[in-house]
Amino acid sequence: GDSVTQMEGPVTLSEEAFLTINCTYTATGYPSLFWYVQYPGEGLQLLLKATKADDKGSNKGFEATYRKETTSFHLEKGSVQVSDSAVYFCALSSTSGTYKYIFGTGTRLKVLA
Amino acid sequence: EADIYQTPRYLVIGTGKKITLECSQTMGHDKMYWYQQDPGMELHLIHYSYGVNSTEKGDLSSESTVSRIRTEHFPLTLESARPSHTSQYLCASSEYPEGPRYSPLHFGNGTRLTVT
Fold first, then answer.
1. B34/A72 Cα distance (integer angstroms)
2. Measured between beta carbons, which residues in chain A are less than 8 angstroms from residue B21?
3. Which chain B residue has the Cα nearest residue A108?
4. What values do phi and psi take at A105, rounded to 5?
5. Does B10 reach chain A within 8 Å, measured CB to CB?
6. pLDDT in tens, B6-65
7. Looking at CA atoms only, how far is residue A32 from chain B in angstroms?
8. What span, in angstroms and rounded, lies between the C-alpha atoms of A64 and B108?
9. pLDDT tens per residue, range A26-82
């Protein structure tokens, strides 16, 4: 079945450091891919998405490119801020026709001033 | 902006009590979901609905039940709460996709349930 494998955390970075959180997926067909962010005490918020191969999703300085050849959707940001501290989830839309979404296990990011 | 609302935000209740977690959305979305989020952050789908009078069990076995009598409302009920039900419960909704373009999930802020 469809699955998402996400880099384990926690990831601790200094402010202005470069961020990469790895995400790879397994799916038949062509899923849409998403990154969500969860701040403490809140639900998940959509950060960015990509719906077909080679699409680049971007938002708030974060980027991720849908790479079908490597089945990857890595999240990157050139310069992180303390306010980026949160949990990040990679997800895909199931290709089984059930309208379900498959989530990775989440990566906690802590940015130090 | 919160177009999907969950109440209560926090609930502490004793073992054996019946509880209902409320979820409402104002976006007219047909699909709605309940996730259980464990302390390790992982999300587990426990129920979902394709529309009114449609409900399905998710991937994680749950002793809860759901109903979908109105498009905007998707409550989750526990008939007899137990300490093992202590968790965060997240409600979400999405539109039907247009072709291959799946729309993203919209999440509420969650209900943190503690059963003593």
1. 27
2. none
3. B41
4. -80, -5
5. no
6. 999 999 999 999 999 999 999 999 999 999 998 878 899 999 998 999 999 998 878 899
7. 6
8. 24
9. 988 888 999 999 998 889 999 999 988 999 999 999 999 999 999 999 999 999 999
Q: Which of A32, A42, A87 is closest, CB to CB, to B109? A: A42
What residues 45-104 of chain A have any CB closer than 8 A to a CB of chain B? 45-46, 49, 51-52, 87, 89, 91, 93, 99-101, 103
Contact (Cβ atoms closer than 8 angstroms) between residue A40 and residue A106: no
Nearest chain A residue to B89, by CA: A43
Those residues with Cβ within 8 angstroms of residue A33's Cβ, 6 or more apart along the chain or in another chain: A23, A25, A49, A50, A51, A57, A64, A66, A73, A90, A91, A92
The residues, ordered by sequence, that sit 6+ positions from A38 with a Cβ below 8 Å of its Cβ are: A44, A45, A86, A87, A88, A89, A106, B41
Burial class from Cβ neighbours inside 10 Å (0-12, 13-18, 19+) for residue B58 reads: middle
> Which residue reads 């989830």 in tokens?
A89
Beta-carbon contacts of B14 under 8 Å, excluding residues fewer than 6 positions away, are: B81, B115, B116
CA distances from B113 to A11, A77, B10, B40, B44 (A): 28, 34, 6, 16, 15
